[in-house]
Design goal:
Blueprint (H helix, E strand, L loop, with lengths): L4 E2 L4 H7 L9 E5 L7 H8 L5 E7 L4 E6 L2 H13 L3 E2 L2 E2 L1 E4 L5 E2 L7 H14 L7 H5 L10 E7 L7 H8 L5 E9 L2 E8 L2 H11 L3 E3 L2 E8 L14 E3 L16 H13 L56 E5 L8 H8 L5 E6 L7 E5 L2 H11 L3 E2 L2 E2 L1 E4 L18 E3 L25 E5 L7 H9 L5 E7 L2 E9 L2 H11 L11 E4 L5
Length: 518
């Protein structure tokens, strides 16, 4: 094959030329492109890494060729998207090196609109404030799409902070305002950029990406709003252009250094996206103010937070303050046991040790595997009713739970579960990490033996004091099912009592909280 392959050659040959090459090339082959995707959307996949110099769209085949200005830029594209598969219209697309070293498309039919789109985005990429009209014709991108994004976080198993969103989205331009809220039991946010092109690049790059491995997945779309009105600068809303706003209704004041710095920066320079070197750098957050988003060499950065040091555990947040020991109070001393706390807190991480205070049986310490799991347990269990009392869960001042010395009176109130086979997150790549939900009245049951009937399960839960309101097996797998009880508190009690219930012949029931209802 010659060093310069003409795009007017046999199309089959071109597509074959796009198969995986052993050597890097600045021409990239993109496949499995959904039919509704536009040329501008495909081109946008390469823009964060450098200038796109040529483009060929094979719409009927769901494929495209993207030529970067340098091999280094192409390598960055392939390296990044091999770790974080990009999505167009919620469908994954795949990028690899082509055998071509250069694209020539001047004589290719049906390439006028994609080439116009390429010219338009390159105009913006090189700092022009004017956005080429061809972009609008290639999918109505700008200015009609606006600068306000609507963000939905699916499987939000970790706390999402305003500072975290700012740090992630500011890599694509200057963020002016953020408003966070809960709607339809989902974490959502509205975010306004200084420029609509920033919003477009953020949407194209972040939609479908996960902040943590396997969870906190971003769904990013354009909002119908053209501007956001922020009344308060606090944990739930922020106007980075106004440091004078009150923080409102008893909420803590925001980090004023963040607001002031953002205000000064964003009112001094407001320019559209200018390529990989033009991404706004995230402001320096105080330790613990937000999640660190580590950069990938040569790229604009990765969303994925570094995993825990122990394979298979829930991913750890870099630099999270505090420790892994929880102080649990207002417990019912007549009902609580170390094993019960182990099972309940084990829904949110691997519990290593539990200690119920010898002289104050309504207080306990629970040691999780790491600080992230401890925070996750606080988020879901603080304020939860347990055996008739509202449980309080917070971080302890202790760094570890000491086992009783030999001969020390303890009455079995301190237990070590470090090597328990019941840890939910001990296996590498455990799917349990993707199925962590708040306490609920509906429980997910799995590992049900074929001999166990619906009535058997209903009677089992009723024997533990539960009010069974409904049950259904999964259609494709009778080893799993959902059972709906009378209240969330009943669900908590049933999970403690029946998780790992022995059906005989070494078959044990698995119980977890469900996000569904029957």
């Amino acid at each position: 094959m010659s060093d310069s392959a003409s795009a007017t050659d046999n199309e089959k040959k071109k597509v074959k030329g796009g198969k995986l090459s052993r050597f890097p090339s600045r021409v990239l082959h993109i496949r499995q492109i959904p039919s509704g995707a536009t040329g501008s959307e495909v081109i946008a996949l390469g823009l964060p890494f450098g200038k796109v110099t040529n483009f060929l769209m094979l719409k009927g085949k769901g494929q495209a060729f993207l030529e970067m200005a340098s091999i280094e830029a192409a390598v960055s594209v392939v390296n990044y998207y091999s770790l974080s598969i990009p999505h167009l219209h919620s469908q994954p697309v795949y990028i690899q090196y082509s055998n071509y070293k250069e694209l020539k498309t001047e004589n290719q039919h049906n390439q006028a609109r994609p080439q116009a789109a390429l010219q338009g985005v390159n105009t913006v990429q090189h700092g022009s404030v004017a956005i080429a009209g061809a972009l609008g014709g290639e999918g109505g991108l700008l200015p009609g799409q606006g600068s306000v994004l609507r963000i939905v976080v699916e499987n939000a198993f970790y706390t999402i902070t305003l500072e975290m969103l700012y740090q992630i989205f500011s890599k694509f331009g200057y963020v002016l305002k953020i408003i966070m809220f809960i709607k339809n039991n989902q974490f959502q946010a509205l975010l306004q950029y200084a420029d609509g092109m920033n919003a477009y690049y953020a949407k194209m790059s972040l939609d479908g990406q996960s902040i943590y491995p396997g969870c906190c997945t971003l769904r990013v779309g354009f909002s119908k709003l053209t501007s956001l009105k922020v009344k308060y600068n606090n944990d739930k809303s922020r106007d980075f252009t106004r440091a004078d706003l009150p923080f409102g209704d008893g909420q803590r004041s925001p980090d004023t250094s963040l607001t002031a710095s953002a205000f000064a920066t964003q009112n001094t320079i407001l320019v559209p996206y200018t390529g990989a070197t033009g991404f706004a750098q995230p402001l320096g957050f105080p330790q613990g103010a937000g999640v660190s988003v580590p950069a990938v060499p040569g790229l604009f950065g990765s969303l994925t937070v570094a995993p825990s040091a122990v394979p298979g555990q829930i991913p750890a947040i870099t630099g999270i303050p505090g420790n892994s020991v929880l102080l649990v109070s207002n417990l019912n001393p007549e009902a609580i046991t170390p094993y019960g706390l182990f099972i309940l807190f084990g829904v949110y991480g691997n519990v290593h040790r539990v200690k119920i205070m010898f002289k104050k049986r309504g207080i306990a310490l629970v040691q999780m595997a790491d600080a992230t799991q401890a925070q996750l347990a606080i988020n879901h269990l603080n304020g939860q009713r347990l055996y008739g009392r509202v449980m309080r869960t917070t971080l302890s001042k202790y760094q570890t739970i000491q086992l009783p010395r030999e001969g020390q009176e303890d009455k079995g109130l301190t237990k070590d579960y470090s090597n328990s086979p019941l840890h939910r997150f001990k296996n590498p790549g455990s799917r349990n990490c993707q199925n962590i939900f708040p306490p609920s009245a509906t429980l997910h049951l799995s590992n049900i033996p074929p001999s166990v009937t619906v009535d058997d399960l209903k009677n089992l839960f009723a024997s533990k004091g539960s009010t069974v309101k409904g049950f259904k097996f999964f259609q494709k797998d009778c080893k799993m099912g959902l059972i709906q009880l009378g209240s969330v508190e009943e669900g908590v009690h049933a999970l403690i009592e029946l998780h790992n219930h022995d059906f005989g012949e070494n078959q044990h029931l698995r119980v977890s909280f469900s996000k569904s209802t029957i």
